[in-house]
């Protein structure tokens, strides 16, 4: 199995990025779930992948007749269409969280390693339904300043203390748990 290193950077919030090792044959619907876990999103919105002249979506969410299925397309397909350009992953068409996926080195899978695998990251994922990156920065400003006119409202809306720091171990466990569920069962 061929593995490729991908780096995912959140547009408008460049301090939020993840680096993963992913099988090139991974279906795009599973890459979506991988990115949801690696980023810390809640998987509660629509999404698409774009690579130059191609777009992959859920069949029932297809906008154009030329849209391809995320259930049939693979990371290898997206890489081939991208021809060296980043692959675009858009999550939540309202907040428009655009992620740039750059492709790094490829390698052969190690026998004792489960893939996909989150290997590093920076920055906590913004909260869902915050209004995109402009809303996220307004949220951070209000949350961090008790004298800000929106501080109490934002604090009550979010319901807990928000830290822009990543909890990489938690995200690695989430990606690992999901990846283990996808592993073929060993025959007895």
In short:
With 188 residues, this protein is α+β, with helices and mostly antiparallel strands. The chain has 2 domains: 2-124 and 166-182, MM3350-like (Structural Genomics Hypothetical 15.5 Kd Protein In mrcA-pckA Intergenic Region, Chain A, Roll), CATH 3.10.290; 126-164, no CATH class. 30% of the residues lie in helices and 27% in strands.
Number of discrete helical segments = 5
Give the structural class. alpha+beta
Order of helices and strands: EEHEEEHEEEHHH
How do the strands of the widest beta sheet line up side by side?
A: 5-4-3-6-7-1-2-8
Using the coordinates shown, work out and report the CATH topology of the largest domain: Structural Genomics Hypothetical 15.5 Kd Protein In mrcA-pckA Intergenic Region, Chain A
User: Spans of 5+ residues with little confidence (pLDDT < 50)?
Assistant: none
CATH H-tier superfamily of the largest domain: MM3350-like
Q: Describe the sheet with the most strands.
A: 8 strands, mixed
Shape: globular
In whole angstroms, how far apart are the ends?
A: 22 Å
Strand content: 25-35%
Give the class-level CATH name of the largest domain: Alpha Beta
CATH architecture of the largest domain: Roll
Q: Give the total of beta strands.
A: 8
Oligomer: single chain
Helix content: 25-40%
Mean pLDDT across all residues, rounded?
Answer: 93
Give the count of structural domains: 2
Radius of gyration: 18 Å
């Amino acid at each position: 199995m061929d593995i490729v290193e991908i780096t995912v950077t959140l547009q408008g919030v460049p301090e939020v990025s993840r680096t993963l090792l992913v099988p090139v044959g991974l279906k795009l619907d599973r890459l979506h779930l991988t990115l949801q876990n690696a980023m810390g999103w809640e998987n509660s919105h629509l999404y698409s992948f774009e690579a130059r002249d191609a777009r992959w979506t859920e069949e029932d969410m297809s906008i154009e007749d030329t849209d391809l299925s995320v259930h049939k397309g693979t990371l290898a397909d997206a890489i081939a269409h991208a021809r060296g350009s980043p692959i675009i992953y858009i999550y939540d068409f309202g907040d428009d969280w655009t992620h740039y996926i750059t492709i790094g080195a490829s390698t052969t899978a190690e026998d004792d390693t489960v893939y996909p695998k989150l290997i590093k990251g920076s920055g906590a994922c913004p909260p869902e339904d915050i209004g995109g990156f402009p809303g996220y920065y307004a949220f951070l400003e209000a949350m961090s300043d008790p004298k800000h006119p929106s501080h109490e409202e934002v604090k009550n809306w979010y319901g807990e203390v928000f830290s822009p720091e990543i909890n990489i171990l938690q995200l690695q466990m989430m990606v690992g748990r999901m990846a283990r569920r996808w592993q073929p069962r060993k025959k007895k």
